[in-house]
Amino acid sequence: MNKPELISTLAEKSGLEKSAVEKLLDSFESTVIKELKSGHEVALTGFGTFMPKFRAARMGVNPRNPSEKIQMPAVTVPKFKAGKTLKDALKHSGSAAPVTSTEPATPDEEAPTTGE
What we know:
Layout: H1 3-14, H2 18-37, E1 42-44, E2 48-55, E3 58-62, E4 65-72, E5 75-82, H3 84-93
Antiparallel strand pairs: 1-2, 2-5, 3-4
Helix pairs in contact: 1-2
């Protein structure tokens, strides 16, 4: 679903005009961005929390020339942590296809070892 489809769906469900829903959605986006830029979290109970996460500077590899090391600057990135209601809704729906990733698993995503 893209933004115009979301606006149409919300307008139908709420009984509001599309222009009002679009204005509300734009206000929501700008408010979340403003709060994240100032270092604050935005928590929507049950749905989830938007938060800024600082990523420290580090050395990386130039993808065009793997033998060349490059300095990657420190950056603040947005992070979203799903709330219990959202997690439970997706667990019990069973309708979403599993997402397959071609990227290697991060330490947070690795399966626990059983010691075998």
